[in-house]
Request: fold
Amino acid sequence: MRQIVSRPTQFVAGLFAVMLVATACGSDATTDDAASQVSSAATVVSESAAATSEDTTTGTVADTTPQAKPAAVEIAGERDVVVTLGGPIAVKYASATDAQKDALGKPLTGDHNAGTRESGVVFQQFQGGVIIAKNDDSGTPAYIITSGKIRDAWNTERAPDGTPSLTGKNGSPGPLGVPTSDVTTDGAVQSASFENGKVTEDTQTGEVTVTVNGKIVPSGLT
Reply:
């Protein structure tokens, strides 16, 4: 980018020339001392010119600092096998509350307990629940669904309309889809929202309500 130098810079340069003449003519110092004085004067003028140049330069400097990726999280799984969490799963686990971590327990090992589905959904199963996200981008929100009737209802095989069916699909491939919230508690009612619906449980009565695309369907739980 071209810098535009204003007249104050020319003035500073002229002042530098005068200082050089005065130093050379008026100093009784040795040659090394005189050179030192000239060098000091040059430094002052150089700093002044730099400051003036900065004041008269237009434009901004882009921040090229790379964004740090979230660190992987290593935790002990079953039989003390170390499990490494990455992407949105790691971000979610790192930010989870102590209560959520206690509810999740240890991560399960094996390909069927963690990985990426054909849809791009990533997941990690735990002893007491699952952490799941729409894709493996670290900026994608992940959610925690802990074990219980809500998770059981979500994992029930369902037809496309949400009714229980032995030939249907469950979990994120099913009609409810991927979670869009953690399991939350409001008094005696626990609930979790999904892409296409919601599951609630009244912990006092044990009643579970499953809503798919705005329609209440059988929970499929016995």
Remarks:
- The CA atoms of residues 191 and 200 lie 4 Å apart.
- The helical segments are 7-26, 31-56, 87-95, 98-104, 149-154.
- The chain has five helices and eleven strands.
